[in-house]
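Internal QA ticket QA-208
Title: Verify multi-chain structure generation after dependency bump
Assignee: T.L.

Test input:
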Amino acid sequence: MSSQKAWAVVAGVGPGTGASVARRFAKQYSVALLARNPSNYEPLVKEIESAGGKAVGISTDCADGKSVKSAFEQLKKEMGGAPLAAAIYNVGGRFIRKPFLELNEEEFESGWEANGYVSLHLQAGCCLMKSSADKLFRRGGFHFSQAVLPLLLEALKGSPEHPPTLIFTSATAAMKGSALCSSFATGKFAMRALAQSLAREFGPKGVHVSHAIIDGVIDIERTKHYQFDHPDAKIKPEAIADSYWYLHTQPRTCFTNELDIRPYIEKW
Amino acid sequence: MSSQKAWAVVAGVGPGTGASVARRFAKQYSVALLARNPSNYEPLVKEIESAGGKAVGISTDCADGKSVKSAFEQLKKEMGGAPLAAAIYNVGGRFIRKPFLELNEEEFESGWEANGYVSLHLQAGCCLMKSSADKLFRRGGFHFSQAVLPLLLEALKGSPEHPPTLIFTSATAAMKGSALCSSFATGKFAMRALAQSLAREFGPKGVHVSHAIIDGVIDIERTKHYQFDHPDAKIKPEAIADSYWYLHTQPRTCFTNELDIRPYIEKW
Amino acid sequence: MSSQKAWAVVAGVGPGTGASVARRFAKQYSVALLARNPSNYEPLVKEIESAGGKAVGISTDCADGKSVKSAFEQLKKEMGGAPLAAAIYNVGGRFIRKPFLELNEEEFESGWEANGYVSLHLQAGCCLMKSSADKLFRRGGFHFSQAVLPLLLEALKGSPEHPPTLIFTSATAAMKGSALCSSFATGKFAMRALAQSLAREFGPKGVHVSHAIIDGVIDIERTKHYQFDHPDAKIKPEAIADSYWYLHTQPRTCFTNELDIRPYIEKW
Amino acid sequence: MSSQKAWAVVAGVGPGTGASVARRFAKQYSVALLARNPSNYEPLVKEIESAGGKAVGISTDCADGKSVKSAFEQLKKEMGGAPLAAAIYNVGGRFIRKPFLELNEEEFESGWEANGYVSLHLQAGCCLMKSSADKLFRRGGFHFSQAVLPLLLEALKGSPEHPPTLIFTSATAAMKGSALCSSFATGKFAMRALAQSLAREFGPKGVHVSHAIIDGVIDIERTKHYQFDHPDAKIKPEAIADSYWYLHTQPRTCFTNELDIRPYIEKW
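Actual output:
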């Protein structure tokens, strides 16, 4: 076992899943929180430090290879030789529905930065994101994976308590394309392909790669006004964090490479 | 919360997954162990009782509706009004490969009871079982589900700590048919259909139904002679038991309905 | 090429897909029509003979191995050494929805023979059939496959114009279980497993095995009262027959093992 | 029915599938052939014209929105108001295997233009393409779809003989990620997502969108040296062309949205 406290890195730390995952992993590890906007990780860094944990926030645009490279240079200094125990890619975005023929190339490749768009329940089918789905899921997943896999492989040398772990937060759109949702689905399908390919390449080396299909509305401030007939109709981000922690603790004799998560009342 | 210690029932208790699952759930619940042959559960009942747990064994042929009915009448007496917290359907069998056209109806419908057959790694493709795949998986799954679901629904009234849970032990053959493996695949596909249908019918009522795809050789006495180039190449049944326990503890806001489990070196 | 006119056999000949498939294959082959009730094939035999084709009807219960054996003994006499070019398993049934816990064993294993049941659109979720789904799909598929595969293999010796072909008519329920539909889904999942296993075992020998997922309401007399907002909302059975004929004509360098078929307006 | 001869457009015309598809559709339609390099379509244009058909070649880089726009401006002039009956997206590439951590961003995003790379059978797992998989499949598919869908919708007004059709040539890598093949799989998964999303958005309007999973080695000059133990082990591109033509002729009451195609001896 390594003599230094190991680290976990979470990319995509906002008010929901990312923050809950960071809190959960901070119980055992030092955590690095990546987000484009420091306002997304600063309160969380303070909260984790106040609770006696160790956290650093690094402003990072995962879709930009240089930004990721520079973030991990900074992170490696912070880590000072301690191992990386887990990496969670949880970068998401906000969406609007739009017919395919109304999408322009800039929207498809770069996302939509205008104000006043309407955020809709993912299940309703969405096609346009503030940042493009391809940037967020495929390209960001590529850069993040390239940055963390050498560290996760390196961690194996220290006989870690749990197998080094890389988890991708995904969605039902990774399994099924929908009308008005082409951009989101292409990004999520591509992320699933990446997760499967990496699981098959790095699993036999001892790194646990998982693809988590989150199917339902996350219970956060922004979704407070979504009304359902049943209680517990939204997924608690703390429960997702527990499931990621469970995945991380699976021994290499028993790796789960894909699981779905949905509220009991969700149709699927 | 119920004032009485709750129960878990495990069907298919042999030397591998079933026994490990029973030991794991016996840490918190009284456990009922079902198997056709008492020699399969007797040592385990003793072991659990010696460790301070409570266990009863009931000889049951899950493929036979009357046998299941009588087993649950006995079990309900044992339970004395305590709730059923979890039910695991883990009935399996032993296989041989056989070309489709050499299968006769009796083998397809009843299985093969002769001596001296060769047991092979499931992944090699297998078509014939000591008891038929249909009896074990489809019909047994039907009778067991009909017996446990009313008890799991009843348990909801007592505000249980964890949602009442029904887990099916399955295999890769539930996802993909193989040459020389028609009987095994039809049984496992049917079991997956049953698990999905029940998850969609009983999930919204609060019962958690899961289908666990176990992909690899289980590490038990019978597979001791299987040699692999890598360590930890066989699935530890204790790790499967931990995953089932994790599934059981998921809150209803976060149900996993299907997950895969395989050793890190497994090709898939 | 064989000097004698080849045969096609269609199991499950009613007013819909089966009859259309028989008519299509009768343009090139002599056809054998199997159904339990002679009233299902008699008018069709007459119709095909009047049009200059050759057809025989044989009363057969595909779920009963003896009945299938006896039907094929009769058929072989009719064929008089001519080859079997194609076999289509199209046995279906009529359904009602029923909660899982209201199903009894007899209904699950034998089907429901009472009068006055309500037939519903398959997509609405159905669980109970006049004859059990297991009998119709898994067991019937087994007996039919065992009867036709030796004939299809035999036909290879005559250098047939098209690869000998076995097609299973299936449904969306082969891919997805539904609430209140457990019996139907278990049967269809099992049929898909059988089709995949046989494709993998008999494909390399030159026999083309296909699984056709028919997703939608068939346009027949019995569904005349189903109203849709759009024209062409029901699948024309003649179009299914054309697709089966296309599958049959694929060369062995280009086998399709699974395809879906649905009307343009169908949600999926 | 339109009074003018309708058109089909094929993107990705090389020595294999694209050329065969163009020849097949040229029997009934005027055809437009798109490829980056005119040497890929010039001989085919001559061949089709000599055979009495009508063909035009347009140099196009489908990954470049401007190039696609300009190609379709030219094409619309050629068409002179005649309808577009079918569009086939068949753009592919050549690959090498490479471990994930040896991929650099330029290779991942732009492909590899160096000389002397080794082309390998797709099934062996490949990760790097002369042009990036994302450019070829996701981005190229986007631009091509945006260009052809308005024309296919427009064609509906002329009551075409067959529903206007958009077909994507895909691969097994659209269903399953592989070690050393992350870039290819992400591109193909994304293309499948696009095809599904468009099928669900444009199907109900009457446009038939299909995703064809081609699983095996295509029988072309470049694969002549691949040796197999069995005859007909490679897919004949003419047979793929026939299957695409069959898809095109399906009426809207019977759309196939996905099918697989593989040689009889292919393992899958």
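Spot checks passed. Helices of chain B lie at 17-26, 38-50, 65-79, 105-110, 133-156, 182-202, 237-249.
Status: verified.
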